[in-house]
Structure to design on (1126 residues):
C-alpha cells in the first residue's frame, strides 16, 4: 500500500554545508530509469508517497520523459497545514519564557518566569500573558499557545495541560492525565515538510461563522466538500503552482538528475542591476578638480615666496606664521585629495522585490529569498539613555519592512539594569499592537513617539476607512505605554522595598525562633526584585557582590521567539483593532547583558558588540548585521532593503559594510555648533564612496558578518580550484589558507556552534548567481528554508559565548569583530576591513534611513568632539596608522585615513595662528615686512580659489552655504579647545603614561523646562573653554590697546591698526557661536568665565608689554601690515 517518503530533516535542509551521497540510495535501478512519485498530505502534515505499483501506472510511465515532481492537494478549508508538533511548541514556550543566566565558573541556568512585567502583556507568547489554566491538581500553570495565541491541547479529550505537566506525562507514562490513553505522538511530532516550493495559498476560511465562511456552503449532495465549486468561486486552481519540484534527492533517489534547487528562476526575465552609480556632473566636478590643482600650485609658489622673503624686523613672528601656513597647506591636501571623485548611488527596490520576494514556478507561495539581518542596539545606563527612547528604537526595528522571519533584534544592556529589561519587555508587549498597525496602514515613521508628534495631516495618503479610529486607539495605547515606561523606576523601587521588608521580617522571625540576640542588627542585602518575585541576576540599585555594574552574571532572554516562516494573518479576535488580512508576526527579539567580573577587561562598547556578534551567530546567524545606537531609530522602514540592493548586486560579495548617513532631530534651527555635521556626511563621506568607501562612524551601518570575522574578501581565482561548484558553501580554511580547523578555537573561541555558523553565514551572504559576471554567488531559492526552532541547549550556548572569559587567548578585538584599544573603535574597525581589501558603500536614501539625537549644548558638543579627537590621536600612535597600511588600501583612501589620525594636531598650529594678530597689534610688526604686490596677488588667488571651491563643493554635495560656514566656525572652536586637549592628553599618555579626563564641574539650569531647545542655553563650565576664551579676550584687548596707541601717537599709523584689527576680527567672527554659548539665554554667564579669561588675558598683555616695551619713535618705513587667510 502507501509508503512514507524519505524526507530530510529540517536541520539538514537548513544547513547548506551538509550534503548526501545520492548514489548509495539508488539501489539497483538503472541510470535511465525514471520514477514519478505521487504524494498526498495526511492530517498529521506528513506526505505519503504512492508508488507506481500501487497506482498501476508503471506501463504508462516507463519512458524517460518525466522528471520527479510532487502533486499536492491545494489548501482548502478542510485541508489546512498543521502547526508544528506539541513537543516543539513546548520547547519554544520554555525558551521564550525563561531567563538564562550563566558565566565564569557557574552553571548556566534557565529560570522559568511566571511574568516579566507587572502590567498585562498582550503578546500571547510572553510570560504572564492571558491563557487557560492547567487542569492538573495543584498546578497553576498556563497551557501552551500556538502562533495566534490559541490554546494548544495535545489530546483529543481536550484536557487542558501546561507545558511542564505535558513533558512530565510524556516522560513518565506517555498517558494523557484526562482520558488515561496514550498521546498520539505520531500525529504531533512529525516534522512539517519544507513548504518553500509549496502550492499557491488559497483564501483561508474566515472565523466567526459569518457569510464568508464557505466550509459549510460548498458541500455537494453527499455532504462532502465540493472542491471544484470552492476553487471556482475563490478563483483557485489545481493547475499551475500546485505541482512543485522537490529539492535534489528529496525522496532519496535520482540525485544526479533533474534541475538543482527546482525550476530555474528569473531566467525568462532580462537581468537588471539592483543599484546604479551616478557620477557627479562633469560641469561641476571638472572645474572642481581644476581649481584644486590651481590652488595647489598657487600654494606652492606662495609658500616659496614667504620662505625667501623673511621679515627681518620680526623673524620670530615671520617664522611662526610660515610654519603654521606650511602645516595648513599639508592639512588641506590631506583633506581635499580624497574628494577628487565623489559618487552618488541609487537603488531599485522593485528589482529587489522581483528577484527575491515574488512568486515563481519553484516558489508559488512567494516566500522570501532575502538573507537574514541581525539588528544590534546598544545601551549602557538607563539614567543617561532614557528607556523610553530605547523602547521606541526597538519598536521601529520590529516594524521594519523586511521579511519578518529574516529579522532578529538584539538589545545589549551593558549596565545589566532591571529597568532596561522591563522596559524592553513592555516594548515587546506593545509591539503586538504597534507592528500590525504599522503594516495595516503603512505608517511612516514607525517610531511611535516621532509619529504621534508629527505636525502634518495624519490622514494623508491613507485609504482605509478605519484609519482614524485605529489611530485614535493606538494613540491612547501608546500614552498608556509611556506612563508604564516612565513609572518603571518607581515601580521597581516599591516592589524591591516590599520584598526586602518581607525578607527582613523573615530574618527577624527566624532570629526570634532560634533564640538569637534581638539587639543584633539584621543584615539583609538590599536586592532588586523582578516582577515574578525573584532576585534580578544583574545590577542592583544598591550594588552588592555579583550584582554591580562591573560584577554580574551573563543574562539572556528571548523575549520574542522566532516567527513562523509563512505569514500569519490576524483577525478581530481578542484585539482592539481589526487586523484581518494583516501579518501579525513579530521578529525575534533577544535581551542580552554580557557577564562582567572584576579583573577582566570589558572593552566598553566594542566588547558589548562582539558579545552580540557571538550570541547572534549561535541563535540566528544572520549573514548581515545592522548596528544602531539606542537613540537612533529607523526612520525609513525600507532602509534595510535599500542596503541589501548593494549587498545582493553584482560585485556585492566584496562589500564589507553599508554606511548610512547620520541625521539628527532636535537640533536648533540655526545649528549653532554644526551638530548636523552635514559637511562631513554629505561631503567627505560621499567623496570617499568614489574611492574605496566611507569610513565606519559607529551607528547606522550594515555589516557583512563574514567580514567582521577577519577574513579577506573572496578571491574567485583561488576558491574556484577548491570547489566543484561555484554555488556551494566553502569550508572555513578555504577563505584563509593559514587557518586550520585545529586553530579555530584559538581564533574564534571554543564554541562549536559558533565555528559551524561561519561558512553558513558566508554562503547565505552571497548575491544570487543569476549573471555570468557573478563568480561568487548562491543559487536562487537557497534561503527559503525555515529556520529551526530555538532549543534550550542553543540558548545555553549563547550564554556561554557572552561570558567574561570567552575572549581569553582568542583574536576577538584584535582581528575579529570590533577592534579594541581605541576610544573610536568604529573608525579602527572600518580601517581594518579596508586594509584587508574590502570596500564599503555609502547609501543616501531619498527618505532618511535613520534619525537620532545629538547634543546641542556647547559643553556636551565639545566633549563629544574631544572623544573623537582623542580616538584619532590614539590611532596616530598605534599600529592602525595609515602609514603602516598594506598595499590593498588604495592611495586616496590612505590619504583619508591619514587625515583621520593627523587632524587633531592641526590645533597646535591653529592656536598659534589665532594669537598672531594680537601679537602683531601688541608689537607693531606684521608677518610680512612690506605689503608687496606679489604677496597681495597670491593672497587674492588663494582666497578666490577657496571661495569657488566651497561653492562647487556645496553644489555637488547638496549642502547649504550656511551649513558650510557653520562648519568652518566650529572647526576653529573645536580646534582651539577639544582638539588641543586631545593632543595633550594623547602625548601625556604616550610619553608619561598619564591619563587626563575632562569632566564637567558646574551646571546651571535653563529657564523654561518646556523649551525643546532649552539645552542650547545651558552653561556648563569645563576646562575646554579656557583656550578659546583666552584667544578671544587677548584679541579684543590687543585691538583696544592698538587703537589707543594709534590715537595718542605723534604720527598715527592707521594702516598697521586696520591690518591687524581685520586679522583679529577674522578670529573673533569664527568664535562668535562660542561667545553666544557663553552668554546663555539672557547673558547669564558664570562669573568664573570672566574672572579666568580676564586674568589670563591681562596677564599675557602685561607680560608682553614688559618684555617688549613700545618704542617712542617709530616710522612707517619699517612697519608693514597685512591680512592673510590661513
Amino acid at each position: 500500500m502507501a509508503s512514507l517518503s524519505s524526507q530530510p530533516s529540517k536541520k539538514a535542509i537548513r544547513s547548506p554545508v551538509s550534503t548526501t551521497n545520492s548514489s548509495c540510495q539508488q539501489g539497483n535501478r538503472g541510470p535511465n530509469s525514471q520514477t514519478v512519485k505521487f504524494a498526498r498530505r495526511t492530517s498529521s502534515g506528513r506526505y505519503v508517497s504512492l508508488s507506481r505499483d500501487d497506482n498501476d501506472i508503471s506501463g504508462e510511465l516507463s519512458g524517460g520523459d518525466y522528471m520527479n515532481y510532487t502533486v499536492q492537494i491545494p489548501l482548502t478549508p478542510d485541508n489546512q497545514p498543521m502547526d508544528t508538533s506539541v513537543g516543539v511548541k513546548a520547547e519554544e514556550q520554555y525558551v521564550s519564557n525563561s531567563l538564562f543566566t550563566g558565566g565564569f565558573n557557574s552553571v548556566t541556568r534557565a529560570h522559568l518566569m511566571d511574568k516579566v512585567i507587572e502590567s498585562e502583556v498582550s503578546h500571547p507568547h510572553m510570560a504572564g500573558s492571558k491563557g487557560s489554566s492547567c487542569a492538573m491538581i495543584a498546578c497553576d500553570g498556563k497551557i501552551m499557545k500556538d502562533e495566534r495565541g490559541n490554546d494548544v491541547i495535545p489530546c483529543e479529550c481536550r484536557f487542558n495541560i501546561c507545558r511542564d505537566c505535558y513533558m512530565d506525562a510524556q516522560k513518565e507514562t506517555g498517558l494523557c492525565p484526562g482520558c488515561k490513553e496514550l498521546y498520539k505522538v505520531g500525529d504531533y511530532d512529525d516534522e512539517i515538510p519544507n513548504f518553500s516550493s509549496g502550492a499557491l495559498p488559497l483564501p483561508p476560511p474566515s472565523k466567526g461563522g459569518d457569510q464568508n465562511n464557505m466550509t459549510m456552503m460548498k458541500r455537494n449532495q453527499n455532504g462532502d466538500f465540493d472542491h471544484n465549486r470552492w476553487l471556482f468561486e475563490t478563483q483557485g486552481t489545481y493547475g499551475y503552482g500546485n505541482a512543485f519540484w522537490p529539492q535534489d534527492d528529496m525522496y532519496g533517489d535520482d540525485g544526479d538528475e533533474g534541475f538543482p534547487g527546482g525550476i530555474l528562476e528569473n531566467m525568462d526575465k532580462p537581468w537588471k542591476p539592483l543599484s546604479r552609480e551616478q557620477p557627479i556632473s562633469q560641469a561641476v566636478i571638472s572645474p572642481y578638480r581644476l581649481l584644486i590643482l590651481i590652488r595647489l600650485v598657487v600654494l606652492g609658489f606662495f609658500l616659496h615666496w614667504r620662505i625667501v622673503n623673511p621679515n627681518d624686523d620680526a623673524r620670530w613672528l615671520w617664522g611662526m606664521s610660515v610654519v603654521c601656513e606650511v602645516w595648513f597647506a599639508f592639512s588641506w591636501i590631506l583633506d581635499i585629495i580624497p574628494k577628487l571623485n565623489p559618487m552618488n548611488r541609487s537603488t531599485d527596490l522593485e528589482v529587489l522585490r522581483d528577484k527575491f520576494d515574488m512568486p515563481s514556478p519553484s516558489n508559488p507561495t512567494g516566500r522570501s529569498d532575502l538573507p537574514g539581518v541581525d539588528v544590534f542596539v546598544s545601551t549602557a545606563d538607563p539614567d543617561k539613555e532614557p528607556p523610553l527612547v530605547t523602547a521606541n528604537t526597538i519598536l521601529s526595528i520590529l516594524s521594519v519592512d523586511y521579511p519578518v522571519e529574516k529579522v532578529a533584534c538584539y538589545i545589549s544592556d551593558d549596565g545589566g539594569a532591571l529597568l532596561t529589561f522591563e522596559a524592553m519587555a513592555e516594548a515587546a508587549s506593545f509591539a503586538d499592537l504597534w507592528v500590525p498597525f504599522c503594516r495595516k496602514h503603512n505608517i511612516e515613521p514607525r517610531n511611535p513617539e516621532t509619529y504621534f508628534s508629527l505636525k502634518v495631516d495624519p490622514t494623508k495618503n491613507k485609504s482605509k476607512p478605519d484609519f482614524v479610529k485605529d489611530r485614535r486607539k493606538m494613540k491612547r495605547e501608546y500614552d498608556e505605554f509611556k506612563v508604564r515606561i516612565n513609572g518603571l523606576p518607581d515601580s521597581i523601587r516599591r516592589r524591591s522595598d516590599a520584598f526586602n521588608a518581607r525578607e527582613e521580617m523573615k530574618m527577624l522571625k527566624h532570629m526570634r525562633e532560634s533564640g538569637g540576640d534581638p539587639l543584633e542588627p539584621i543584615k539583609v542585602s538590599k536586592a532588586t526584585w523582578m516582577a515574578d518575585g525573584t532576585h534580578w541576576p544583574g545590577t542592583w540599585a544598591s550594588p552588592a557582590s555579583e550584582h554591580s555594574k562591573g560584577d554580574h552574571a551573563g543574562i539572556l532572554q528571548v523575549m520574542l521567539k522566532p516567527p513562523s516562516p509563512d505569514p500569519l494573518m490576524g483577525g478581530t479576535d481578542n484585539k482592539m483593532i481589526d487586523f484581518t488580512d494583516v501579518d501579525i508576526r513579530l521578529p525575534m527579539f533577544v535581551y542580552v547583558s554580557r557577564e562582567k567580573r572584576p579583573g577582566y577587561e570589558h572593552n566598553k562598547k566594542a566588547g558589548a558588540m562582539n558579545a552580540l556578534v557571538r550570541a547572534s551567530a549561535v541563535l540566528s546567524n544572520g549573514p548581515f548585521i545592522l548596528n544602531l545606537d539606542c537613540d537612533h531609530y529607523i526612520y525609513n522602514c525600507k532602509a534595510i532593503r535599500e542596503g541589501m540592493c548593494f549587498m545582493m548586486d553584482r560585485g556585492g560579495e566584496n562589500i564589507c559594510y553599508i554606511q548610512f548617513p547620520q541625521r539628527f532631530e532636535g537640533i536648533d534651527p540655526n545649528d549653532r555648533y554644526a551638530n548636523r555635521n552635514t559637511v562631513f556626511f554629505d561631503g567627505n563621506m560621499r567623496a570617499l564612496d568614489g574611492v574605496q568607501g566611507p569610513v565606519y562612524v559607529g551607528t547606522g551601518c550594515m555589516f557583512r558578518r563574514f567580514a567582521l570575522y577577519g577574513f579577506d574578501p573572496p578571491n574567485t581565482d583561488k576558491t574556484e580550484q577548491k570547489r566543484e561548484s561555484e554555488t556551494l558553501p566553502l569550508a572555513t580554511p578555504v577563505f584563509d589558507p593559514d587557518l586550520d580547523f585545529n586553530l579555530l578555537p584559538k581564533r574564534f573561541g571554543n564554541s562549536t556552534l559558533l565555528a559551524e555558523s561561519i561558512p553558513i553565514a558566508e554562503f547565505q551572504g552571497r548575491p544570487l548567481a543569476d549573471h555570468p559576471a557573478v563568480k561568487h554567488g548562491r543559487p536562487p531559492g537557497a534561503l527559503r528554508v525555515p529556520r529551526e526552532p530555538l532549543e534550550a541547549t542553543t540558548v545555553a550556548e549563547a550564554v556561554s559565548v557572552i561570558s567574561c572569559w570567552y575572549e581569553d587567548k582568542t583574536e576577538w578585538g584584535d582581528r575579529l569583530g570590533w577592534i579594541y584599544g581605541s576610544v573610536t573603535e568604529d573608525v579602527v574597525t572600518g580601517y581594518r576591513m579596508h586594509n584587508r581589501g574590502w570596500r564599503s558603500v555609502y547609501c543616501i536614501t531619498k527618505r532618511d534611513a535613520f534619525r537620532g539625537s545629538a547634543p546641542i549644548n556647547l559643553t556636551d558638543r565639545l566633549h563629544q568632539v574631544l572623544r573623537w579627537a582623542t580616538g584619532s590621536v590614539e590611532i596616530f600612535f598605534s599600529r592602525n596608522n595609515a602609514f603602516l597600511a598594506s598595499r590593498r588600501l588604495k592611495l586616496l583612501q590612505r590619504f583619508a585615513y591619514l587625515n583621520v589620525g593627523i587632524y587633531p594636531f592641526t590645533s597646535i598650529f591653529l592656536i598659534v595662528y589665532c594669537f598672531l594678530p594680537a601679537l602683531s597689534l601688541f608689537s607693531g610688526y606684521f608677518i610680512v615686512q612690506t605689503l608687496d604686490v606679489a604677496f597681495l596677488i597670491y593672497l587674492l588667488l588663494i582666497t578666490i580659489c577657496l571661495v569657488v571651491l566651497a561653492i562647487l563643493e556645496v553644489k555637488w554635495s547638496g549642502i547649504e552655504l550656511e551649513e558650510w560656514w557653520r562648519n568652518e566656525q566650529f572647526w576653529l572652536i573645536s580646534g582651539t579647545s577639544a582638539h588641543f586637549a586631545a593632543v595633550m592628553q594623547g602625548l601625556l599618555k604616550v610619553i608619561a603614561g598619564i591619563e587626563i579626563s575632562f569632566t564637567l564641574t558646574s551646571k546651571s539650569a535653563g529657564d523654561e523646562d518646556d523649551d525643546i531647545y532649552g539645552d542650547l542655553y545651558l552653561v556648563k563650565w569645563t576646562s575646554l573653554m579656557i583656550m578659546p576664551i583666552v584667544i578671544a579676550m587677548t584679541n579684543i584687548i590687543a585691538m583696544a590697546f592698538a587703537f589707543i596707541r594709534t590715537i595718542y601717537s605723534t604720527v598715527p599709523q592707521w594702516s598697521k591698526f586696520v591690518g591687524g584689527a581685520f586679522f583679529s576680527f577674522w578670529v573673533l567672527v569664527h568664535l562668535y557661536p562660542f561667545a553666544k554659548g557663553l552668554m546663555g539665554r539672557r547673558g547669564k554667564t558664570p562669573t568664573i568665565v570672566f574672572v579666568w579669561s580676564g586674568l589670563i588675558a591681562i596677564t599675557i598683555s602685561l607680560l608682553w608689554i614688559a618684555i617688549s616695551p613700545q618704542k617712542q619713535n617709530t616710522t612707517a618705513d619699517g612697519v608693514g601690515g597685512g591680512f592673510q587667510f590661513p
Notes: Residues 231 and 237 are 6 Å apart (CA to CA). Residues 282-308 form the longest helix (27 residues). The longest strand covers residues 106-112.
